[in-house]
Specification:
The chain has eleven helices and five strands; from the N terminus they run E-H-E-E-H-H-H-H-E-E-H-H-H-H-H-H. 59% of the residues lie in helices and 8% in strands. The protein starts with a strand and ends with a helix. Strand 2 (27-31) and strand 3 (37-41) form a beta hairpin. It has 302 residues and is mainly α.
Length: 302
């Protein structure tokens, strides 16, 4: 905050503060040691606007009195809105606190079940004759082996390939890690929003991250729910930071771990990883979290 001016009369200071508020400049009035009243501007970037307003301010003018009355009415409306928001937030928080006793979300459980079934059918991702039905790029059988077919098949009759790679997992650690995080993060989104919301979120994330992986890495066999997990992580992380009403706050240690793990993937130190699927998920989740938080609208509305 920055000090705008000091006024001897409390009523005049309050009128000035309210009129500034009506003009879009939030302020705080504080009594000084010499019984005067200091008018503080919250946002330093608005100081120039506040000084210009002060130069034309006349406490005896009906214009400024009207502005002050409108500001007080606006504050009352905002207080009521804040109370409704507080009630809604508290309700959501109680739902989250009861997390240990609630069942896994419907869509979350369905996605986990499909992953397990596909994992078993594909022999932990080793039976290529089954895996090929789930890959992004079609696999064509040639002389006892498989070669990559034309990815245009996605647009000419096999659109499911945009999504099905997320159900492929290669090894126990791969599927356990992904489903563990999907269970917690996916259920949280279902409880705060809805099952339909999560389903749309997952499908958009899968399509974007799979296309990104193919566009950068070319035809490869990749799979796993980790792109969706990174999207859920980024969404909850940023929505929690930017939206005070959102009931989740991810611990900084977890945020650091997830970002370091993402970076390690690009070094090759942790083995072959579909890094651009992870990155694509992070992009979708981060973008979705920022936009849905209302942060951009609030900044533009200043």
């Amino acid at each position: 905050m920055r000090l705008l001016t000091t006024v001897a009369d409390h009523a005049e200071a309050k009128t000035l503060g309210d009129a500034l508020y009506a003009d879009g400049v939030p302020t705080t009035i504080k009594e000084t040691r010499d019984s005067a009243f200091a008018v503080w501007v919250h946002d330093e970037e608005q100081m120039e606007k506040a000084r210009a307003f002060l130069n034309g301010f006349d406490p005896s003018s009906s214009h400024f009195s009207d502005m002050a009355r409108k500001a007080r009415a606006q504050r009352r409306q905002e207080a009521k809105a804040d109370e409704r928001l507080k009630t809604r937030t508290e309700k959501i928080r109680k739902q989250i606190e009861a997390k240990q006793n609630m069942r896994i979300g419907t869509v979350t459980a369905g996605l986990m079940l499909i992953c397990v079934v596909v994992f078993l059918l594909t022999g932990m991702g080793e039976k290529m004759e089954i895996v090929r039905f789930f890959t992004f790029t079609p696999l064509v059988s040639v002389r006892g082996g498989f070669v990559f077919g034309n990815v245009s098949a996605i647009w000419t009759g096999q659109p499911w390939r945009l999504f099905t790679p997320m159900f492929l997992h290669f090894g126990f650690m791969h599927i356990i890690f992904n489903l563990w995080w999907l269970k917690d993060l996916g259920t949280a989104i279902e409880r705060v929003f809805s099952s339909r919301y999560l389903l749309v979120f997952v499908l958009v994330t899968a399509a974007f991250s799979h296309v990104l992986e193919y566009a950068i890495s070319g035809p490869t066999i990749f799979g796993g729910m980790s792109g969706v997990v990174y999207a859920l992580f980024a969404f909850i992380w940023l929505r929690g930071r930017l939206d005070p009403s959102f009931p989740y706050r991810l611990p900084q240690q977890l945020v650091t771990f997830m970002l370091i793990w993402l970076g390690l993937g690009f070094t090759g130190w942790v083995g072959p990883i579909a890094n651009w699927v992870h990155t694509g998920g992070l992009i979708v989740g981060a973008g979705w979290g920022v936009v849905s938080s209302g942060y951009i609208q609030r900044r533009l509305g200043r």
